[in-house]
Structure formats: structure tokens, C-alpha cells
Amino acid sequence: MVRITESLIRQRAEHNNCEIFSLEEISLHQQEIERIEYIDKWCRDLKILYFQNNLIPKIENVGRLKKLEYLNLALNNIERIENLDSCEFLKKLDLTVNFVGELTSVESLKHNVHLQELFLVGNPCCEFGGYRKFVIATIPQLKSLDGKEITRSEQLQALQDYPIVQQEVVEQQQAYILKRTKEKEALQKSSEEKENNKLDHRQNIESKQSNSDEEENKHETNLDEDEMNRKFWEEPTNYTPESRLEVHRHIEKIRKFKDKDKNQDKQKPRRTLITSEGRVLNVNEPKIDFALTDDEENNQFILDLAVYRHMDTSLLDIDVQPTHVCVLVKGKVFQLVLPGEVKPDSSSAKRSQTTGHLLVTMPKTQEVVKAKPKSTSRTRSATSTKPHTHATRTTQHSEKLEVDPSKCLSADLSNIVAERKSVAQGPFKFHQQKEPGRISDDFQDNPEVPPLMD
Prior knowledge:
Strand content: 5-15%
Radius of gyration: 52 Å
Shape: elongated
Helix content: 25-40%
Low-confidence stretches: 379-395
Largest sheet: 7 strands, mixed
Number of helices: 9
Distance between the termini: 130 Å
Number of strands: 15
């Protein structure tokens, strides 16, 4: 039996940030719920409530939902309409494909003054003569019944025929209640017989188990279960709340039985990752491509694992050890032995945003000493021409060079400081360039004139 719990309601309240006290709409359909409970205490602000396709036999514990406007109880085991008079703002009630046989129970909806739509399609009461007229006359505020609009003329006609229709409905209802009582008694007897047959069947199985092998017992048990399953579905039964509940429990039983067999078949011996001698094995259970690169420049190993692109990263678990690396991909083991020892604490892992591949970087423990790069001058000297190489080879013994004595003269200090040129005054056009050692033709030397000072 599935019960309504706080965790279930919070799970269904994701659209309201999992808050249930302010919840206005919730869907609890197809949950195999057998009773309505706690919903009126935890979610008093509910306006829309979905309970379709469950195993609910009775309408209860909804009286405190004062703001409820729409209640969907389609495909359940309800036989009577009740406990809804406190839902003051109820506008729509859906009881499609239930087992409502007491049509007079719709009188409890008179107090729901805002009720406009009612669905009773697929219920036994729909087969009663005068069903539609009775409902329309009993609930005058209805605007639609079973998806069909109620006209003003139809409502007047129903009110006129109400006394006669009411008597017919009561008679048919009593006949249906008597029929249901007989069905319940017959179902109770058949269920007792089935229980006795099951006890005898179990005793036969236990006696066979004491006289035969385990494999044969398992095979015979499977055959018996299949035979019982076939008989269950071939046996003719009436569509009643009890038969619907029995079908549900039978399906649940078969499901558990199959799950149990699958779990037993799936229990395989655990794969050996490290032998008893301590040797680590290479394992690739997920069967994915990989590449291990030795990055000598950065002194590290890089593992490129071709993980599925759209797989969530939470399904990956990485364990780096000094001699090997182990990756769990959706519970399947990928293990690879490394060609050298690495530093687990300094290792890192990341995923590619384009391909989804997993890159595991593992620095090596042994550091490699690298030679310093040579300077450019030495490189040039090493790549010089052959005659120069020959010269370097021949200069192993020291040689003295002779210098021409004529080239070694004393330094001339007279020209160290350049002569200072006079700067002319006045406009630029009157400036004349005087050439040293040259005298103009019209120059006259007057001895009376004193010489000019530089």
C-alpha cells in the first residue's frame, strides 16, 4: 500500500521550490495510492488537485481545502460521492470511470454552490434510466454534465419530471446495491479458495524440494508461476473495485518476482583488478577508446579517455595511484597501468566542453634534468663555414703576428679640436663664406688701419 508522505508531496512540488505550505496545484496521479490523507493539513491553499489513476476507494480528508476549485479523481475505486460539502469554491469535479452506483449521493453536492462541471462517465450509475435528468434536477447550479452543456429548457424539463425520475433511480439503485453485495460475497469465497490452493501448492513445492535437486526445483517453480499467471489472466471476472485491486496486486507480485530473478542473474563474480601477487591488471569494462601520452617536455603522463559526450560528470569517479589510474564510468571499471610512477596529489582531471573526453594529467615523480639552451653566438660559431673550422683547428699552438712599423706612428694631436668658425652678424643674404688662404681682388692693405681682432 502506497501512502501519501511529506517527501512525496515535496517531490511533486518542484514547481513551487518544494514548498508545500503555499502550494496551489499538485499532481499525484499514477502513484498507486489507496487512501487520501494528510493533504488537507499540509497544503491548505490547494486550488487544483489531481488524483487520477490510483486505487482510492473513498473521498475523504479534503474538507479543509476551502480554496479547492478542481478535483480530479478519475480512474479510481470510488463508489459514493461524499465529504465534499466543505469545499466551498469547488467548480469542477471529475469522477470518470469509477464505481459510483449510489446516484442519490450526488445530493451532497447541492451545498457546492460554485460547482459548474461534473463528470460521471464510465460509472454504473450512468446506465440508470433518467440518470441525466436526475443529476440536473438535483444540482441546479450545474452548467455542464459529462462534457455536455446543460440548456435552460433541459433544466426545466428535468425539474418537471423529477418526482417520477427520482423513484425510478431509487429502484435501480437498490437493485445495483443488492447485486454488489452478492458480488462481494462471491469474491470473498473465491479469495478463500485461492488462499487454500496456494497453501497446498506451497506444501507440494516443499515436498519436492526435499526429494530433488535445486536446479530442478527452480525450473519447476518457474513453470508453476507461469502457469498460475496464465490462469489468472484467462479467468473471467467482473469489473469491480475488488477485481481491480486484485489485478494491481498480482501485477506488483509478478514485477517483484521478475526483479528478484534479474538480481540473481546479474550477480556475477567480481572482476579481479589486482592479483593475489599484487600485480595490477589492465581493465576496460566500459569498452571506450583511450590514449596515454608521455609528455616529456612537461614531465607528465596525459590520459585521454573518450567518455560519452552527453554523459553527466557525476557518473565518473577517478582514482589515481602511483602506478596506475582507475576510472569508474557509470559503475564500470577502467584501469590502466602506467609506465612510470606519478604523483597522485598533483594530478588533475578535466573534461573537454566540445568532445566530452576526460583528460587526466599525472606529473611524474622522477624529475628530468634538462640541458640549458646554448647562446646564439655559440650556435653561430658551431654553424660556421669549413675554412673557419680549419683555422680553429690550426690555432692550437700560439702564433705571433708581425705589424708594419710604418703603420705605428705617434698620434697627431693638432686636429683633436676643430677650428672655431666665426659667426656672421646681420641678415643671412649678406653673409659671405670666406675660404681660408684666399684674398679678394679688390683688397687694399692700409697700414694705418689697425688689424681686426678675431
